[in-house]
C-alpha cells in the first residue's frame, strides 16, 4: 500500500520509542550484572507471549515481577530482599527517556497529517508519562495497552484493538516498531509495518518482511512526510 494511504501510525513503545539502557544501573544497584538486562527483558516478553498463546493473560508488571524474582534467586550468593529488588527495577520504567530522534519524528508525522496512537505490551499510563516528559503527548489521539484485549502483541487481537480505538481499519494503519516479531504480527493482522533498525543490520527471514525500513524515527518520518499528498 502506498505510504500516502496510511492514515494512522501505531507506535510500539518499549525499545521503539524509549531506550531501556538506564535500567542497567538499577540492575547493578540490586547486585545483578547490568549485562543481564537484555536477557531479562526477553524473558518477560517470552512469558507474556506464552500466556497469550495458551489463552491466558497477565499484565506486564505481574510478569516482570516474577521475572525479577526468578533472576535474583538464580544468582549464586545473592542475599537481598526480593520485593525491594522488584520495586527498584520496575520503578525504572517510570523514569525512561525517549530516543533522541523520537520528538522530531513524532512532530514531523503529526504536522504531515498522520494520526498517531500507541499500543504497548506495557502500561498506557507509563506511555502517557513518557510522551508527556518528551513534550509530544499532544500529538497522540489514543494510547492503548494489552489490558484492553487481554492478550499481548503479536496476537492479532492486540493490533485490532489499537486500530479500532483509533477508529480505523487495519489496512489504514502502519505499525512502527524496532522488533521484527512486532512487525510480523502487525503484517499478519492486516497492518503495514515500518521497522526501525536502530543499529540492527539483519531482519529475520522467517518473519513477514516490513513494508518500510528506516534507521530511526527521524528517517522514517522524513520518508512518510515526503510521500504525503
UniProtKB/TrEMBL annotation:
InterPro entries in the record: 2-HAD, HAD-like_sf, HAD-SF_hydro_IA, HAD_sf, PGP-like_dom2, S-2-haloacid_dehalogenase
One protein family per Pfam: Hydrolase
CDD domains per the UniProt record, alphabetical: HAD_L2-DEX
Source organism superkingdom: Bacteria
Entry GO MF terms: hydrolase activity, acting on acid halide bonds, in C-halide compounds
Keywords from the named record: Hydrolase
Annotated NCBIfam families: HAD_type_II
Family: Belongs to the HAD-like hydrolase superfamily. S-2-haloalkanoic acid dehalogenase family.
Descriptive protein name: Haloacid dehalogenase type II
